[in-house]
């Protein structure tokens, strides 16, 4: 219990209340000592009034008055004259003199603490002002033992009262903390444990209801975390299922395309000029499709094949991409442009570079076609001493905010309705495999531009 939040709060509350009581006790005991001495002065003054009323008092009556006042003698100064009013034998010498007329709070506290710590019974002289202006000053001598015992008794009563107050206060705070903090925290922990044991169970998702602002913020944060994690787990499960399905489809599709590839080999021997001219492109497309199926199978095993780097004629690769996408334009008014120097070569895997550029160009073509307006797609390339840059820009409608937020995330960064968002994710992964970087350069209502950066490094092969 002591290691719990409420237990420690109980201990701290008790300690702090006792500390506060100590700070109250010190001036209180000093005040008690001052009142005790003033009371003795007042009682001594009352006893001296009997002498003023009757100049001759019996020794027995005088001794009784002094005993009732708790002093040994009384000196009263009236009209600048110091007069010994009552007296009795003093059992010792006067140890100290205390003047209460001008004593500061610090002096009263200091004298009270010293008196509590001093066990010796001493004779002291106390000076004060008479009540009701009965003189200039009154002076008494008395023992310190009754004063010290009265202070100890008062201190014990204060201590008992302080302990009682601290226990009641700490108990009330203990119950309040358990109701306002501990129970809501345990509820949050319970939700966390249930969710950890069964993330798919919706009953483990917290329903924020705390009235304390900080706890409500914690519950809201936990709700957001659980919601996002649940979505991610479901997405991961769907991806795993999709990966298995794609792997199966790719396996069978690869076999079908392999058979088609055998037929295209025979088409190349045709005497028809048109067939002979189109056959290489058909062969190239089927070869890429077979390669893509094999890569998809590898992707289903959570690994993209490492690129086979060679020096590739960039203009040839881009021309193949443009020729392939131009066939898919249909009725749309889309123009393709290339700004690539003749003979410019880059270090890349030709098949993977084709896939990278094709995904970006296809996204641009589909975005322009969706608007129903004419558009242009431009592929430009440049180079520096450190890297090559391939920029694909279009005059489409730009990327929506959601697509920009999850641009390279599979199944979340789709740029059109119904899109899977795999194109950019695959392109980014292939570029990283080359040691490069794919980034969104700019996007607005006038179009979008992507920049592919490939490091040059050692170009000797």
From TrEMBL:
Residue ranges of every copy of the Histidine kinase domain listed in the record: 248-458
A Pfam family hit: HATPase_c
Bilayer-spanning residue ranges: 6-30, 158-181
GO molecular function: kinase activity
Keyword Cell membrane found: no
EC category: transferase
Reactions accelerated catalytically: ATP + protein L-histidine = ADP + protein N-phospho-L-histidine
InterPro entries: HATPase_C_sf, HATPase_dom, His_kinase_dom, HisK_dim/P_dom, HisK_dim/P_sf, Sig_transdc_His_kin-like_C
Keywords: Kinase, Membrane, Phosphoprotein, Transferase, Transmembrane, Transmembrane helix
EC numbers, comma separated: 2.7.13.3
The name this protein goes by in its record: histidine kinase
Classification of source organism: Bacteria, Pseudomonadati, Pseudomonadota, Alphaproteobacteria, Rhodobacterales
């Amino acid at each position: 219990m002591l290691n719990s939040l409420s237990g420690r709060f109980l201990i701290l509350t008790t300690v702090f209340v006792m500390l506060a009581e100590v700070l109250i006790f010190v001036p209180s005991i000093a005040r008690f000592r001052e009142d005790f001495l003033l009371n003795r002065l007042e009682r001594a003054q009352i006893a001296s009034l009997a002498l003023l009323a009757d100049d001759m008092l019996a020794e027995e009556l005088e001794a009784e008055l002094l005993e009732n006042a708790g002093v040994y003698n009384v000196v009263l100064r009236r009209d600048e004259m110091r007069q010994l009013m009552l007296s009795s034998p003093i059992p010792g010498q006067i140890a100290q003199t205390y003047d209460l007329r001008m004593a500061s709070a610090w002096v009263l506290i200091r004298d009270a603490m010293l008196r509590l710590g001093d066990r010796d019974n001493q004779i002291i002289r106390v000076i004060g002002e008479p009540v009701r202006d009965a003189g200039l000053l009154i002076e008494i001598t008395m023992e310190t033992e009754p004063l010290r015992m009265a202070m100890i008794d008062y201190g014990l009563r204060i201590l008992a009262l302080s302990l009682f107050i601290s226990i009641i206060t700490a108990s009330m705070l203990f119950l309040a903390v358990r109701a306002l903090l501990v129970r809501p925290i345990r509820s949050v922990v319970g939700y966390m444990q249930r969710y950890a044991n069964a993330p798919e169970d919706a009953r483990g998702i917290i329903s924020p209801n705390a009235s304390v602002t900080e706890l409500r913020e914690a519950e809201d944060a936990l709700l957001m975390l659980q919601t996002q994690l649940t979505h991610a787990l479901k997405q991961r499960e769907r991806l795993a299922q999709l990966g298995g399905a794609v792997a199966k489809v790719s396996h069978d599709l690869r076999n079908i395309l392999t058979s088609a590839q055998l037929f295209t080999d025979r088409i190349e021997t045709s005497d028809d000029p048109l067939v002979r001219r189109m056959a290489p492109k058909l062969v190239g497309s089927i070869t890429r499709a077979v390669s893509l199926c094999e890569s998809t199978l590898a992707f289903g095993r959570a690994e993209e094949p490492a690129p086979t780097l060679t020096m590739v004629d960039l203009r040839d690769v881009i021309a193949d991409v443009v020729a392939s996408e131009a066939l898919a334009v249909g009725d749309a008014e889309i123009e393709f442009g290339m700004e690539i120097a003749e003979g410019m070569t880059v270090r890349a895997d030709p098949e993977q570079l084709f896939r990278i550029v094709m995904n970006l160009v296809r996204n641009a073509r589909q975005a322009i076609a969706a608007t129903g307006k004419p558009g242009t797609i431009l592929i430009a390339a440049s180079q520096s001493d450190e890297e090559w840059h391939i920029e694909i820009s279009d005059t489409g409608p730009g990327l929506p905010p959601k697509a920009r937020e999850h641009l390279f995330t599979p199944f979340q960064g789709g740029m059109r309705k119904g899109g899977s968002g795999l194109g950019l994710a695959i392109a980014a992964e292939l570029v990283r495999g080359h040691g490069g970087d794919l980034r969104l350069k700019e996007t607005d209502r006038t179009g979008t531009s992507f920049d592919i950066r490939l490091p040059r490094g050692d170009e000797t092969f």
